[in-house]
Every structure is written in C-alpha cells, then in structure tokens.
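To: structure subgroup
Subject: Chain for Friday's discussion

All,

I'm putting the inputs and outputs inline so they're searchable in the archive.
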Amino acid sequence: MSARMGWTAAAAAALASLACKDTVAPLDLAGPPATVAAAAGDHQRGVAGAPLDGALTLAVADAAGRPSPGVVVEWSSSGGTLSQQVDTTDAAGRSSVSWTLPPAPAIYTATGAVAGMPPVSFTATAQPVAGDIVFRFIDAGGYHACGITTTEQLLCWGYNADGQLGLGSTGTVSSPTLIPGDYRYRRIAGGFYHSCAFTLAADVYCWGNNSEGRLGSGTGSSASPIPVMTAVSIDTLRGDTVVVGSVALLVQALSAGEAHTCGIDLVQKVWCWGRNSEGQLGRGDFTSSFAATAVGTDLFKEVSVGGLHTCGITTSGAGRCWGYNVAGQLGNGSTADAAQPVAVPGSFRTDPLVIFHSPDPDFPLPPGPFVAAGYDHSCAITAGGPTLCWGLNEYGQVGDGSTANRTSPASVAGGHAFEAVTAGLRHTCALDTSGAAWCWGDNTYGELGDASNASSATPVAVGGGLVFAYLKAGELSTCGVTSTGTAWCWGDNEYGQLGDGSTTSSNVPVKVAFQP
C-alpha cells in the first residue's frame, strides 16, 4: 500500500473517531413523582422524651421506578420534635428526618407529604422506660393501678385527680407512666385516692390525697412521693447529733384502702395511719392520725386494708380484724365496730409456698396473700386449705353460693385449692395451684373477667388461659401479672385503669400497654 493510501485510511479512522466523540447520549432524567413510600423508620419503639434510634425515611420515584431527586417533602407529627419540617429528596430520591418523641408515653404518628401524592405515615411508640417492660408486681387501687418492673421502676396509670399516680401532676393517663425519681421499689399499694410504696431499702413513701392523714406525713396532699413518719418520738443518732423526734417508717409489707394505710415493720408489728372514725387504725380510739401508729402487741405475717376496716394474720396463724363492721366484715359473729383487733375463727396460712414466681429469680414474689379485705367483706385461706369469706354478700362476693351477709367465715363454694386471694369493692378473685385465676361477686363492669357481665355467687374462671403469679382486685377492676412478667387487667376502664391506652371497659383480660 502506498504512503498516500495509508494516510487516507488513517485520516478516515481519525475522522470517524472524532465523529464518535461529538455524539451526545440523551440524559436519563426522572419523570414527575409517581410513588412515595416509607423506606425506613416505621413502627419504632423508643423512650418518651428521647430521640428515636432510626431516622424516618421516605423514597420518591417516577412511574418507571427511577429515583426523583429535588422533590420537596413536608414533614409533620402528632407530637414531639422533627429535625426539619421541609426537606428535598437527595440523588437517591430519599428524604430523612430524625424524631424526638413527646414526654408522654403513647403511640404517635409522623407524616411525610409530597404535593399531589398521598401522604406517608410513620408510627412510633413512646415507652415510659427503655427496652421491653417486664413486670414483677402489680396493684390495682380505686380507679388506678401501678406496676413494678424487673428493674425496680414504678409505673402507674388511671385516675389521677388527687395525684395518686405520683407523677407530680394531676392529669389522668390511660397507659403506664414512669414515676420520676431515683427510688428502686419493692412493693406498691393503691388506695382509693392515694398510693403508697416501699423501696428496696424498706423506706415507705405515699402520695395523693392526704385528707385525714392517709399519706402518713404531717404535710398536705402531694402528687409526688413523700416519706411516711411514725407518731413515736425517739432519740435518733444522725451523724454526731442526737435528734429527738419522729422517724421514717421501715416496712416489709404494705396495704392501702379508702382512706387509711397499714404496713408491717421489720420486726413484724403492724402500723396504721389515716382515717380512724370507724376504728380502722386498731389502736383503741376513733381519732385519725397523720403519722403511723402501732396496732396492739401481736406480731403479724400479713395485713390487708379494706374500705373502712383492716384484717391480718398473725405469725401464729390467727385471724384478726378491726374497724367498721356493719355487714360483719370483721368476721367475729357480730356487726359492732371494733377499734382494736378482734379474733376471726379459724387457723390461717402463714407458711411460705412455692408458686409461680416473677421472671426475676433474685426477687421472687412472696407467697399469698392469704388474707384480703374488700370494701365491706373479707377473705382468708385456712391452714387446712379451704378459703373462707365473710361480710357483705349482696352480689355473692363471699362466694358461698348465696347472697346473704355472713358475720362469721363461710367456705367458698367449689372446693378449689387457692394459693392467693384478693378482694375489691364487691368482688373477689383468687389463684389456684396452677396459676389460673377465679373470680366471684359483682360483674357489672366485667371485673370477673369471664367474658360476661353476669354476677356470680360462686367462682368462675377468668378467660384467656393465662397463668398468673400475682393478682390484685381494684374497686371495679382486676389486674394480674403472669409468670412471665406480663401485666393484664379487666373490668371498669372509665379512667384508663386497665392501662391499655383506652377508656373502654373489658370483661376479659387486656394486655397493659408497652409490653412485648
């Protein structure tokens, strides 16, 4: 090939190469937004008042599924704080915001919206504490309830007009809310308009309405925990100084009623405080007390506070009751009030039992309770096994198959072997040896938990097939904690005392909110 011909071929190749470089491919631009979807961050759980771990992210794409960058997204939420309200999608067609939850436990919603497109919603649960809530103890009061977790934190819910939830406020809440403070709690006792609890160190605190001294302090009402003091003035060494005055009460058991409270101290003496117009403080007079006063000389294994009376079991297994007795709730065969403990016929259980415990083996539930004071009736489990009840029986709350009042103990029908008993306003519940719950008495609000609203003068099984470790009857509701640490409640829910986030009553157990 000649040189001229070679150059011509090379030139042709060069020209062809240049022509290729001048050719511009069309841009693959996204069309208008056609889809908006949640990409990440939906259905998270976090601590109330804290940021969620994950961002809320939505993705915008066109009809061909290509990411749509530069699209304006407007963010909003039902509560809490979002990192920004207006954002534009990035090159991947995504918009992300962080979300700090509101301080009140609840389920909240956040929304991302693109003009002309349906909004995308994200839900988040603001929990009162971090992680899964596992209960080791629960107590139902008048129209509220409280539970203690396996981390010794105290959560309360329900009616709060008197500050009985201990939140430092008086707003009613329908789901578990953490009581502020650094205390580690062992037991909680809910009264009608007040609550009391004691810590791992045995210190007693009360909060709520302090009318007639039910908080056990010389101060007024309080929506936050305040210490219970004794009425006994003693010399106490504080540092290098001897101080003469009342001292804080230390207890190992606690029970609260309508307007008075009682506890068993570390040497097994009973102390009571609050209203005493019916002799329910058991000290021989009818004067109310704003500080804890000792009851007699007996030593007690258990104590239970009812509406206007108190019952207990001594360390020797003897039954004792005192206070109001219009319907025979003291069980001594009369209807006369007693300002000091009177004997209840029978020998009652005090022995430690092996029953279903809470999930924390280092802090198991105690056996029983073997005695229960309702509003106008009482029950106790005998040393021989049968459960006895006495007092007002118009709704069958004594459980003997009748509706006649009983001034002396009567056997609960059915021959059940009960391991624990609890009494409410007009109903009674108990646990058998398998952990199954049974209830009897008034069922107007579903407090028997048997899926009906029919009252029963004999025990009926609570529905759901749950295995309970502990059970507590409130005024018109009942709550229990299972052997795996899950809390359930049933009955009246006018003030959110079932703790499921609603105010709808239920005649079957409903799970308390924020649990797995």
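Points worth raising on Friday:
The two ends are 86 Å apart (CA to CA).
DSSP finds one helix and 40 strands in the chain.

D.
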